[in-house]
Design a protein that fits this description.
Bound molecules: 2-amino-2-deoxy-6-O-phosphono-alpha-D-glucopyranose
Helix content: 25-40%
CATH architecture: 3-Layer(aba) Sandwich
Number of domains: 1
Strand order of the largest sheet: 1-10-9-6-2-3-5
Oligomer: single chain
Number of strands: 10
CATH topology: Rossmann fold
Order of helices and strands: EHEHEEHEHEEHEHEHEH
Largest sheet: 7 strands, parallel
């Protein structure tokens, strides 16, 4: 695992957007797995700016969702489908055909989960999967004690996650669904490159446990330790609990520019 400590979220967004642009220069139809929440927004803004400046052609890029709420009405502005269309697909100038996600309003949710795993495989697998981290260490919506081998499936949110996400629902926890579909940890680990961005002091404990703690289902993000190409990008506040912070800084400073992340 590589840990990169950046000064702030804008620098993290720029670094990761450049990695995505570099991927698209090498593989124009790359399948980009995107995450929701506040943290990745600087990535999407930086990538859209690169497209607008013609630094990269993203016209053949494909985008896929990490997770989704179950039971929100179609077109609800806070469904992750709506969020990804608004924050990623439209700013990149892509059409909806280049986008895929699990069907959170399916009558048969279990079948929708199996179908999504199959669709990801049939699309050739995810080339680069962006991840955030929950304050309880979740990735996607894999809450603590999710199987490290899990596939896309329905999960029940913890109270903490519903409290954290209430800000997207007018601060009203009653509006936050209890159930979600999420790529499983086993599914996520099949992506060719995992890139987790964490910013702010509220993430410092979860980051320290994920990066330096034992591999544990209790901290789902610790599963990145199993992946051969995982990059964790953190700002100074989110890095505050890392014992090896100086080592991570020195290692990245000595890295040749051409190597990227
Ligand atoms: N399912 C999403 C996660 O993918 C995201 O990482 C997390 C953190 O969000 P934020 O970046 O807003 O802190 O929120 C949600 O629970």
């Amino acid at each position: 695992m590589e840990v990169v400590i950046v000064p702030d979220s804008a620098a993290g967004g720029e670094l990761i957007a450049e990695a995505m642009a570099d991927l698209l220069r090498r593989k124009p139809d790359a399948l980009l797995g995107v995450a929701t929440g506040s943290t990745p927004l600087p990535i999407y803004q930086a990538l859209a700016a690169k497209v607008a400046n013609k630094e990269v052609d993203a016209s053949r890029a494909r985008v896929c969702q990490l997770d989704e709420y179950v039971g929100l009405p179609a077109g609800h502005p806070e469904s992750y489908r709506s969020v990804v269309l608004r924050e990623v697909v439209e700013p990149l100038g892509l059409d909806q055909d280049s986008f895929m996600g699990p069907d959170g309003s399916a009558e048969d949710v279990a079948a929708a989960c199996v179908a999504y795993d199959r669709a990801l495989a049939e699309a050739g697998g995810v080339d680069l999967q962006l991840l955030g981290i929950g304050t309880d260490g979740h990735i996607g919506f894999n809450e603590p004690c999710s199987s490290l081998a899990s596939r896309t499936r329905i999960k029940t949110l913890t109270q903490q996650t519903r409290v954290d996400n209430a800000r997207f629902f007018e601060g009203d926890i009653e509006q936050v669904p209890h159930h979600v579909i999420t790529q499983g940890i086993g599914t996520i680990l099949e992506a060719r490159h995992l890139v987790l961005l964490a910013t702010g002091e509220a993430k410092a404990d979860a980051v320290a446990l994920a990066v330096e703690g034992p591999l544990s289902a209790l901290v789902p993000a610790s599963a990145l330790q199993l992946h051969p190409h995982a990059t964790v990008v953190v700002d100074e506040a989110a890095a505050a609990g890392l014992k090896l912070a100086d080592y991570f800084r020195a290692t990245y400073a000595a890295k040749p520019d051409w190597q990227g992340i």
